Amino acid sequence: MTADPEPAARVEGGPLGVADGLLMLIRETADALPAGSVVAVRTSHPTVEHDLPAWCRIMSHSYLGSVAGPDGVVYFFRKGDVSPPAVAKPDWGVRAPLRSGGEFHTRDWLIGRVADVPERATGATGFAPRGAVVEPGSPVYDFTINDRAAVWAAEVADLYEQATASQWDASRDIPWGDLRPLPEPVERAVCQLMTFLAENEYSALYVPAKFVPRINPQFAEVVFFLCTQMADEARHIEAFTKRALANGGGLQYAAASTQLSLKTLFDQHDFTVASFLLSVLGEGTFLDLLRFIEDHAPDPVTAEVCRRARVDEARHVKFGMAHLRYYLGEDPAHFEELRTAVRRRAEVMASVTEVSPRVQEALAVLAAGGLDPARLGEGTRKVRELIAEMHSHRLKRLAQAGFTEIQAEEMSRLHTPNFM
């Protein structure tokens, strides 16, 4: 070089080479300068005289030469004026508000670019966290659920927060040691109900699981919540199965009618329809069933298992209701879509007019405390009252979602006799 150009900025690289982190320092400096600016880089690393000119060619900068000095060689380049592909700038300076006790809740991350939940997502963002800047040239993923209205719920972040704070352990949080021998008819009834609950919970686990890989990660909170729902259902299956095996009984009968009902649920391909049938109608009805078993449980273990499961199921119902309100609020035409889905499922279930007799009988035995003829009539009456209460509560939930009284009555009557 005949003369040192006047640099706009200097990089002191010490002994660093291009592969040792020198390029990070250079990029950090050059990115803040306008095109045409000269950058001086001082380093004693011997390979920079070859590596830096090559890098400049790749990045469309102009390498100007070097000057040796007592503390290393100073290399000069002029920042190129070839603009890189246009990309948005990522956030910087974001500081989320913390809650009492230093807690950082998921809802509170809705700041900056993360707060922009797209109405329609694209597969081009792939697995990038919402709010990140995706480089051009990234692959396009084939997620099939990309519309916000198809999965979103206003309360989903809060429900996820509740779910993560409410996990329990079916091995250690249930008082298994408190079990005592029960009369055989009562234990058999408990085991039949545990079998019925477990097979229904398998459906409640597998239905959301089939949708998770289809949902665009831009709706991450929904994916997170569904994963907690799946964890809940796995734990319920574990707890119900353990109760059937813990006290001298065993798993009992799985009715063909129950399997048919659950298959019609598993075969749903639309997320909102599946959520409506599973969480609003099905799990909503199960809240009453779990409360009934809890209230008439012959032992503290059965009562505690059902109580804990009921608390979890109530959260699932809340998500189903929240999503339903959001979905229906986007387009009133969706009301008719859901009515049609209920009718179609009812057509497939036309041959089934009531829940499995084994389940009805088990509920009656539980409510009667056994097979005493003097109390069995009272037990069967309570089961009839339970089924009527299930219908009444379905009507209330459907009305809260915005369905008319006539629509709610029709859909509740057509709901599967299997409860879920």
TrEMBL record:
A GO term for molecular function: oxidoreductase activity
InterPro entries membership: Ferritin-like_SF, RNR-like, TusA-like_sf
SUPFAM superfamilies, A to Z: Ferritin-like, SirA-like
Superkingdom field: Bacteria
Protein name per the record: Ferritin-like domain-containing protein
Taxonomic path: Bacteria, Pseudomonadati, Planctomycetota, Planctomycetia, Gemmatales
